[in-house]
Amino acid sequence: MRITHPRRVGIGMASLLAVWALSMFAHAHAHADARSDSLIVALAMPLTTVDRLYSVQREGLVLAQLTDDGLFHVDPDTLEFVPLAAASYEWVGETRLDVVLRDDVTFHDGSPLTADDVVYTFDWVLDRDSGTSRGPVIRGWLDRVEKIDEHRVSFHLKVPYPMALRDMAVSVPLRKQGTYAHTGTRAVEQQLNGIGPYRVTGFRAGREIELTRFEDYYQASPKANPAIKYMRFRVIPDQGTQQAELLSGGIDLMLDVPPDIADNVRHLPNVERLEGDDIRIGYITLDAAGYSDPNTPFKDVRVRRALNHAINRQAITQYLVRGSAQALDFACHPLQFGCEGTGPVYAYDPDKARALLTEAGYPNGFSFDLWAYRDKVMGEAIVNDLRAVGINANLRYVKLNVFSKVRNDRDMSAFFASYGGGGTADASAITGVHFVASTPRNYSGDEELAATVLAAERTIDPERRRELYRQALDRIADQAYWVPMFSYSQNFLLAPGLDLSVPRDGVPRLWQARWSN
Known about the structure:
Blueprint: H1 13-22, H2 24-34, E1 38-43, H3 58-67, E2 72-74, E3 81-83, E4 86-91, E5 96-101, H4 115-126, H5 135-141, E6 142-149, E7 152-157, H6 164-171, E8 198-204, E9 208-213, E10 230-235, H7 239-248, E11 253-254, H8 259-265, E12 272-286, H9 301-310, H10 313-321, H11 350-359, E13 367-372, H12 376-387, E14 392-397, H13 400-408, E15 414-419, H14 428-434, H15 447-457, H16 462-479, E16 482-494, E17 498-499, E18 514-515
């Protein structure tokens, strides 16, 4: 990758200064409002539902941490899975988990949380006709849920599954019994009745979400007594518009800010910047199985290895991703348990890439579409690197809904994407979604690899799990099913006086936000 000047994204510095100069009065007025107990957050990606059972977007997880609770949650400091709506739990053997519920948890309509609600929630997720986003994953390990008494339930697993607490924490918010009885589908148009520290008090799909602090939220929760009473999420896809809104006081917080924008804007008055790590990783999946085309060049391991050598991951990471980001050698994040591959590492070597292409019968390269839905600048850099070794890659940059459909139909020869795994500090968050045979993201067609990943997921012993993940990661690297790209760093831009902790896993806990005096 040849970079002479890092590309700047968004409106220019002169424009920003002009916006700032024209908006000081509005800005001061807006932050008078901020001190009156409200927070306005910009979202780049629209949410079509406030129901986490039907959303896999990072934005949906950020929202769900405010409106919903599961039995467990991810501790923001340790990244461990700890009880939340659960008071305690006990493993009874390797395939039974008994959970005691807190007795002081209420839904936003005032109803108490009971064992019947927990059973209903998981029965709904297990129902194939319910269409929940993570239903297939839960059905892979959970057989049934049984009520023991009013505040105790027993989860009966099909197989040993050490990440059960993770799935309950990240993917299954609790629902009141009968929630979907009248709609038979997701709660898009009905008011969300969660148990989180905030209630949904306004929702315009794809445009705006309004929340109000739930005053009857249970005090035993680590999320109890959030300082800010009102939160409002505005969908603003354009980063330049977000910047102008931040400077004028129209919003108080920008999430997931590209580093170039953060570098430009942080020098302006009345803007502060926070930086931190992110468990999200970027990667390229190659159609090794030939799902999209039985004659695709990517069925040849030499071609796949050539792509790994052709892309200058270090330069892309250093100049475009930046911050605390790292170039990756394996299909996982270094913070994740089990991310300890020892297999081949592909150094940037265009000559080696050309030699492998010639050996595979493509001395003049070939053409293909590289699909992507985010990080267009990185996608363009990847395309440029591939063209430098004779591969004519065409960047097909589309919206997420289009991308997801084509990917799930397994009709892509290659795609550049990212995955955060709900901030899960475990290699299963990556391998279990991308290399198990039944998942639509798996383009390897490698049944032996899928068996290894499943064995790791179903092994309780941590050292055995560690070894199985090493075997899986080494296999992925040796066969070059992926081009692992980089970890992400995260940037927040915020109004002065707003205190917010920088999360280790890339998922901001907005219930921790507060305005300083």
